[in-house]
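Journal club side-thread
Mid-discussion, someone asked how the predicted structure for our own chain would compare to the paper's figures. Pasting it here so we can look after the session.
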Amino acid sequence: MKTYDKNIQLKLKTFLQMSLRKKVNLILFFLGIKPLIYKILHFFLSFFIKSKMSFLRRIIFDINTEKSKYIFFENKEKFLLFTRDQVISKECFANDNFEFEKFQKVIDFLKKDYKITKLYDIGANIGVTCIPAVNRDLVKQAIAVEPESENFKLLKLNVSLNNLEDKIKIFNYALSSENNKLLNLEVSEATSGGHRIRLPYRKKGVHEEEKKEVKSVMSKTFDSLFSEINSKEDLIWIDAQGFEPNILSGANKMIMSGAPVVIEFWPYALKQNGFWQEMQEIIKKFKFFSDISKDPFQIIEINQKNIQELFSGWDIEESSKHSLFTDLLLLSNK
């Protein structure tokens, strides 16, 4: 005996009750073109993700800000980045790196007199300088020091993602002029590179620093951690948001070694910390300096006249505008 297949009637009824989106998906599935459409969509999505057009990559970054705390990036290096970080992480994602040209520029300049094989990256953040420096064979090994705990976690992970555990050693300290002191680290919500040591006597600033979260971090001096510095093969790179004079006060052996040093020079933060005059005295311990933001490099003798010129002419920083800073290469020998 033959009967009608009631299952077909039931399926038809179910189909008619479906939403338009589900009906389209089902039709595409039976026609066998759904996988093809997915491949086409994946192709275009991959195009946008891999696009070298920085404005497109910025859009992708901003979209992910609402979805996740992190975003993965892969080009010459692999990085897990903070989506809340609108400066370092976003720039790295959009342009394949964050100001790495500065490092390359310094290495190229030092080639004629130095054979740099080791980098000391002080204020290493999530590894945007030390990891490409080692991975691209600009140096053979690196020491990375980062005080902020969340940055340090990503630094450790990013070193591992690039299989550089044997070439990059990492330390979770704040370098300072004293050992084993608990320091207050002010946490920036806008950028992972904006964390700063808060001193008890620091002047009130224009960026509402007093409202920021504060963490306790342990201090170490540079000289206590790293006693053997090679003047011709080591490069010290310090980005500490106006805390550089305090770090260098605990690095007399390193300074005396004659190794080249690069420091961030941010007048606003130096003045706010009360380090303006101390920074001048620290720089006088070297013989030459160069503002690496200028092209080509100009090697300037360190004397009272040139120091005065370096420390003058800076506008008062405004909260609504970008910070006024540069980076200095300090040399004991030409």
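Post-session note: The longest helix spans residues 34-50.
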